Amino acid sequence: MARRRMVYEGKAKILYEGPEPGTYIQYFKDDATAFNAEKKDVIDGKGVLNNRISEHIMTALGGVGVPTHFIRRLNMREQLIRQVEIIPIEIIVRNVAAGTISKRLGIEEGTPLPRPIVEFCYKDDNLGDPLVAEEHIIAFNWATQQDLDDMIALALRVNDFLSGLFYGVGIKLVDFKIECGRIYEGDFQRLVVADEISPDSCRLWDVETGQKLDKDVFRRDLGNLADAYTEVAKRLGIMPQNGTAPTTGPKLVH
């Protein structure tokens, strides 16, 4: 097999040069990190689960007209994606108070918010991905005003769709984060949802019990992370209800 050229390695994924111009191969690792990588572990099967869940969600978003970078899943750990110019901003949509907003504003965790709240963080691990305002984004030319408007519109569309998708399987979408990237088509550009959408990037609570089914299980030592992600996959119909986490698949070759 030809040696692939690595383009980028992040905390949870690796990007390789794709088979065709304008494509990448996105590989999902088993690494789990929290608190800006101060807490680390390797969770067997996590990458497989996130690959399958993100594939399911990205495909569903595409089906309702939300543009994404996703092309197709290649195997248990990899998917083919479009090459995009990532905007260095994380877009966070909050429906229920949890995590940093509860600490920052003194709102009790679990409090429903009066409407979805959109926040922005500047993507820089060395700075801890700080919260920024729209004024910062425009002033420092991280994105244009049109980009910003499009990003907010995309994030709210994703929120509407995912809230219904998860509620239908007994899961409350508390909050999530997405990234957006630019795709150039001739003289035109458009924004698409990039990166991944999985329990790594969403807070997901059981509607009835409030049980956490996301990375907070790892952050707060609440149990087995793979079990939580497997439960999400089962409810979404990605795995049989009596199945176990599909941990097999190609191993990372450096």
Give an overview of the whole structure.
The chain is of the alpha+beta class. It has a domain at 85-206: ATP-grasp fold, B domain (D-amino Acid Aminotransferase, Chain A, domain 1), CATH 3.30.470.20. 27% of the residues lie in helices and 33% in strands. It contains six helices and 13 strands. The strands form three sheets. Strands 8, 9, 10, 11, 12 and 13 form a six-stranded antiparallel beta sheet that branches. A five-stranded antiparallel beta sheet has the order 1-2-3-7-6. A two-stranded antiparallel ribbon has the order 4-5. Helix 1 packs parallel to helix 6. The longest helix has 23 residues, at 145-167. The two termini are 13 Å apart. Residues 247-254 have low confidence and may be disordered.
Number of helices: 6
Radius of gyration: 18 Å
What's the CATH topology label of the domain at 85-206? D-amino Acid Aminotransferase, Chain A, domain 1
Morphology call: globular
User: What series of H and E elements makes up the topology?
Assistant: EEEEEHEEEHEEHHEEEHH
Topology:
Blueprint: E1 6-9, E2 13-17, E3 23-28, E4 31-34, E5 39-42, H1 46-63, E6 70-73, E7 78-82, E8 85-96, H2 100-105, E9 112-122, E10 131-132, H3 134-139, H4 145-167, E11 171-185, E12 188-194, E13 202-206, H5 216-219, H6 225-235
Antiparallel strand pairs: 1-2, 2-3, 3-7, 4-5, 6-7, 8-9, 8-11, 9-10, 11-12, 11-13
Brief rundown of the structure:
The protein is α+β, with helices and mostly antiparallel strands and 254 residues long. The chain has helices at 46-63, 100-105, 134-139, 145-167, 216-219, 225-235; strands spanning 6-9, 13-17, 23-28, 31-34, 39-42, 70-73, 78-82, 85-96, 112-122, 131-132, 171-185, 188-194, 202-206.
